[in-house]
Amino acid sequence: MFDFEKVKEKNFFDVINTRKTIRKYTNALPPIEAIKMIADAGRLAPSATNTQNWEFIAIYDEDIKQKMANAVENEFEKLKKFVKSEDDEIKLNGYKYYSMFFNKAPVVFAIVEKKRISTMLGILEKNGMGKEELIRYDNRSSILSMGAAIENMSLCAHALGLGTCWMCAPLVAGKAFNEILSLNQDDKVVTLLTVGYPQESTPARPPKKTIDEVFRIVR
Ligand SMILES: Cc1cc2nc3c(=O)[nH]c(=O)nc-3n(C[C@H](O)[C@H](O)[C@H](O)COP(=O)(O)O)c2cc1C
After folding, report:
1. How far is the CA of 131 from the centre of ligand 1 (A)?
2. How much is the mean pLDDT over the chain?
3. Is 168 touching ligand 1 by the criterion CB < 6 Å?
4. Cα separation of 141 and 145, whole Å?
5. All structural domains of the chain with their residue ranges
6. Are 173 and 75 in contact (CB under 8 A)?
């Protein structure tokens, strides 16, 4: 059972400092209250013009997870035929590994971006701006909003003692996901976020750049 009160005492900086991607889980099912708390952390994230154009679908259903994994497998089979060199086929196979383990996670969140046209693009489009020029004015705020929600969710899961893996590689089968999850055509799964209790021994977090490499002050 979760001790939710204890979780609330967790230090914010410790949570940030100790989070790492977890790709292997025990078979234990995270309780629905915890999964709901994770979705709630996503709900509270900032979003461009506060549109909140997201939906968080927690998939426990093994058949659905398997259907999604089969769809990813099918897409990679197609891509294997598409690439021309053996070298690229090997690279593709390596990449495939990072898209295939989500069905083994006890819970998988499908993070859905609901179609949203930014205020600015809406105005420009209405006034006849062509598609190519519109791209120049697209500040990608919708996908950034999704990222804010996903990071909130990852950190919340970690604070609850759960591990996550933020996964975009399986999105090769994005179209099939829409069908499997009965989504509207315009909506889009932008990430699968796996959730589960980490296996006892998990790889260390990969090295990060130093603060001096990524930070500078202008004054
Ligand atoms: C946008 C995004 C997409 C990612 N997609 C995948 C993925 O498809 N498969 C995977 O195994 N990991 C994926 N990851 C996890 C990264 O590989 C991981 O965050 C990175 O190696 C740094 O490790 P850390 O999370 O432990 O700091 C993704 C992470 C992000 C932010």
Report:
1. 31
2. 95
3. yes
4. 6
5. 4-214
6. yes
| Contact in structure between 25 and 106 (CB atoms under 8 Å) | yes
Burial class, 147, CB count within 10 angstroms (exposed 0-12 / middle 13-18 / buried 19+): middle
Centre of ligand 1 from the C-alpha of residue 168, in Å: 8
Q: At residue 3, does pLDDT exceed 80?
A: no
Question: What are the structure tokens assigned to 176, written together?
Answer: 């099939």
Q: Ligand 1: which of 166, 189, 193, 208 to mutate, most ligand atoms within 8 Å of CB?
A: 166
Q: Average of pLDDT values for 48-68?
A: 97
Number of other residues whose CB lies within 10 A of the CB of residue 134? 14
Specify whether domain 4-214 bears CATH 3.40.50.1820.
no
Q: Give the global pTM.
A: 0.95
CA–CA gap between residue 121 and residue 139 (Å, rounded): 9
